[in-house]
Amino acid sequence: MGERTMLVNAREVVREEGGEKLILLVFEDITDKKMIERSLEKSEFKFKLLTETVPHLIWINNATGNAEYFNSKWVEYTGEPVEKSLGEGWVNFIHPEDKERVLNLWSKSVKTGNLFSVEFRIKNGDGNYNWFLTKALPLMGSNGEIIKWFGSNTNIQIQKEAEKALIKTSEQFRQFTELLPQKVTNADPSGKVNYYNKSWQDYLGLTEEELLREGYMKYIHPADLQQTKERWKISAETGVELDNELRLLSKNGDYQWHMNRAIPIRNERGEIKQWIGSTTNIEKFKEEEKRKGSFLQLVSHELKTPITSIKGYVQLLLNMLQKENRDLEALPIQPSLLRIDEQIVRLTRLIAEILDLSRIEENRLDLKKEKFNFNTFIHDTIEDIKRTDIQHTISIHQELNCDIIADKDRLGQVVINLVTNAIKYSPGNKTVEVRIFEKEGNRAAVSISDNGIGIAMKDQREIFRRFHRVEGKSEDTYAGLGIGLFLARDIIERHDGDLMVESELGTGSVFTFALPYENKNN
Ligand code: ADP
């Protein structure tokens, strides 16, 4: 049976008859009780040891809720001897505003043995309060009775302050956005909008509640809806910024153009936490653009008539001079007229470019496609250029002979543009090389190379945008509007082709376009 622990109770008993005195010994076997107590002491000791190494404030309360133990972090924090906290002393460190709430919850837990979890402020040694998250669990006896409570307090002051700052900034964000003429939204990571500013409400004539319930999808012009949805889907899936133009129905019943942008806000781990969207009314801007387009169209039309007439007369005079080549030879009439003629060709091309630009903007640049031999066409176009420019040598290398289906005039315009650029931007150099060759995917390619001023890497994408001209010397030295390449690329793309540039500053440029051919002849 082994050793047992006994509690001995001795009592002196006097026997009535005879008056003898007896000692009565009562033995109580308390082995089990002792064992429990000892193991409890042991685990409590271990627990206390552990509590000294953690940054939390740790405590043990008895079953009725009175404090029996605090770790040194608690003592350090409160700046008071531990006696001040023991028993019910700890209650005095709770912020007066939190006391009632905390004690109510605490007494509930003490009654039920349920987890105690609460956030409240505790006073430190300087008399200031910090926010803590307090959690406690009871240790239960074999009959389900509470033996002790083990609790920990975690300082969450920094989180609380961050939370407060966040609330403040989002309040400020709201106040700020209410003032903006732009329409501003705030959406969750999936794109579900949870805030519409006043400008949205005013434009659509809806309350924020209505907007939150209905969204603005049904106010988007039907023709723009599909694209808007697709763009949103891509952004929500990949996190790329949204940039979209769409028409929105105003409360007055008319659709107005808007630019819709949204950027994702990420946390420190790079996960998207929210989207901020801004939608700007660009109706006026669009109208302005349209007006500008029609103005340019008008200007070019108006200019075309007098220039055609001047050109006609210059031609007439030149012809007359050629025939009647007599007394007038002393006067520089012929060179002057030739010069005028050259300038008119340039002016005519400029006007045509402006016209084309507005056609592209209105999507009215129609192609008249026909089948022809590509090589003969390139050859003839280069010959035409050579006729007006006798100073440069333009050589043609043909590695492919093919027929294509295309708009001859438009393609001619592209070739003229690229070759005249090659001449224009290589002042010291007099040779331009044109190469016709095959590219993968049954495509005919033409490259035009010069040894001119070249184009810096950073400008190589930009030069294809309308009105873009490389800044610096070239802008002042070489005349131009910055429309040519924009048109050229547009025309080539309308032929299912592409136009690219390879260039190095100071060395020269190679412009290459490629488009599908119909059949090969070699
Ligand atoms: P423009 O020549 O009328 O300015 P383009 O659209 O034809 O307009 O060309 C845009 C810009 O690209 C030019 O202003 C020039 O800076 C640059 N560029 C075009 N072709 C060449 C070239 N062959 N060499 C160097 N720069 C060029």
Task: State the gist of this model.
The protein is α+β, with helices and mostly antiparallel strands and 522 residues long. The chain has 13 helices and 20 strands.
Quickly count the helices: 13
Coarse morphology = elongated
What is the straight-line distance between the termini? 111 Å
Helix content: 40-55%
The small-molecule ligands in this entry are: adenosine-5'-diphosphate
Low-confidence stretches: none
Major beta-sheet overview:
5 strands, antiparallel
Brief descriptors of the model:
single chain; 522 residues; alpha+beta; Beta-Lactamase; 5 domains; 5-stranded antiparallel beta sheet; 20 strands; binds adenosine-5'-diphosphate
Written account of the structure:
With 522 residues, the chain is of the alpha+beta class. The protein has five domains: 1-51, no CATH class; 52-155, Beta-Lactamase, CATH 3.30.450.20; 160-281, PAS domain (Beta-Lactamase), CATH 3.30.450; 286-361, Signal transduction histidine kinase, dimerisation/phosphotransfer (DHp) domain (Helix Hairpins, Orthogonal Bundle); 370-520, 2-Layer Sandwich (Heat Shock Protein 90). It is built from 13 helices and 20 strands. It has helices at 31-51, 72-78, 96-112, 157-179, 198-204, 208-214, 222-238, 283-323, 333-361, 374-388, 408-424, 473-477, 484-494; strands at residues 6-14, 21-29, 57-62, 67-70, 116-123, 129-140, 146-155, 183-187, 193-196, 242-249, 255-266, 272-281, 369-373, 393-398, 402-407, 431-439, 443-450, 498-504, 508-516, 519-520. The strands form five sheets. A five-stranded antiparallel sheet has the order 4-3-7-6-5. A five-stranded antiparallel sheet has the order 9-8-12-11-10, sandwiched between helices. A five-stranded mixed sheet has the order 14-16-17-19-18. Strand 11 (255-266) and strand 12 form a beta hairpin. 20% of the residues are buried. The mean pLDDT is 87. It binds adenosine-5'-diphosphate.
